[in-house]
Design brief:
By secondary structure, the chain is of the alpha/beta class. It is built from six helices and 17 strands. InterPro entries: FAD/NAD-bd_sf, FAD/NAD-binding_dom, Ferredoxin-NADP_redctase_2, Pyr_nucl-diS_OxRdtase_2_AS.
Length: about 300
């Protein structure tokens, strides 16, 4: 029986682990892998203490710090969660079952798919959700980036230094990206902006050869010859394992109060999986610290 089980290995989960360990809580960290979304991030300029650092570098520092403490780490994916009759908790993975007095849910989010023909079939064969990971495979080739937010514009900018042509397909007639990122993008001469278009299908034989897009205003279809399609249309929470147990909003984010508490006493949530309004590394880390302190306070008063 652990004092605390932390589910998730991103900034929220790892920060929670450090704070829990400093409180001498018997802690288990369950994660499929370290890093979360940060492992796809090439450039970070707004994490205090670093004028510039890459996502993998920053997560390496997080991991190094966690491993200085007595935290039990198991690399397993959680697929079940049960509230026991005695108000403790059972956490299930494919390999084992674990018991705990408190739990922090910090499993973050994953890329949202386009749900169009060819997307699943060509994933790994031209369709990607990570420009940082897969961009180098498209040296001097044509690619499309789908999306109009920060991640899409950043991906287009990153790919413009590798591919010979980048088509940026935006559903709206405007971007929802930060001005500073848009300013950088405007400098690139090989990014072709396609505003007011949505994706209809991805086609090819063994690998991606073209994407079909539709102009929303006219309904006109257009084929673009590309070797790769990078999907950057947002994220969805990894919250299925607590569905019908933890209260969620319509976006399937976990609803928490200002003390990181969910609707179940002893269960806390932190980071991008919550209904907090902004998704930032520093906010996720702060959430993790707060959730660990609240879990400690809960046990202190309960005992």
């Amino acid at each position: 029986m652990y004092d605390l089980i932390i589910i998730g290995g991103g900034p929220a989960g790892l920060t929670a682990a450090v704070y829990a360990a400093r409180k001498k809580m018997n802690t288990l960290l369950l994660t499929k892998e370290f890093g979360g979304q940060l492992m796809w991030t090439k450039e970070i300029e707004n994490y205090m203490g670093y004028q510039f650092i890459s996502g993998p570098e920053l997560m390496g520092k997080f991991e190094e710090q966690v491993k200085r403490f007595a935290v039990d780490i198991q690399y397993e994916e959680v697929n079940g969660f049960v509230v026991n009759p005695d108000d403790t908790f059972l956490v299930k993975t494919e390999m084992k079952e674990y018991q705990s007095k408190t739990v922090i849910l910090a499993t973050g989010k994953r890329p949202r798919g386009l749900d169009i023909p060819g997307e699943k079939e060509f994933t790994g064969r031209g369709v990607s959700y990570c420009a940082t990971c897969d961009g180098p495979f498209f040296d001097n080739k044509a690619v499309a980036v789908i999306g109009g937010g920060n991640s899409a514009v950043q991906a287009a900018l990153e790919l413009s230094k590798i591919a010979h042509t980048v088509y940026l397909v935006v559903r709206n007639n405007h971007y929802i990206a930060d001005p500073i990122i848009l300013e950088k993008m405007k400098v690139a001469t090989n990014i072709i902006e396609m505003l007011g278009y949505e994706s209809e299908g991805i086609y090819g034989d063994e690998v991606v050869e073209k994407i079909t897009i539709r102009e929303i205003a006219t309904g006109k279809l257009q084929d673009i010859a590309v070797d790769g399609v990078f999907v950057e249309i947002g994220l969805e929470p990894n919250s299925e394992y607590v569905e019908d147990i933890i209260r969620m909003n319509k976006r399937k984010e976990l609803m928490v109060d200002c003390r990181s508490r969910t609707n179940i006493p002893g269960v806390y949530a932190a980071g991008d999986i919550t209904d907090g309004p902004d998704k930032q590394i520093v906010i996720a880390a702060g959430d993790g610290a707060k959730a660990a302190l609240m879990a400690y306070d809960y046990l202190l008063h309960k005992e």
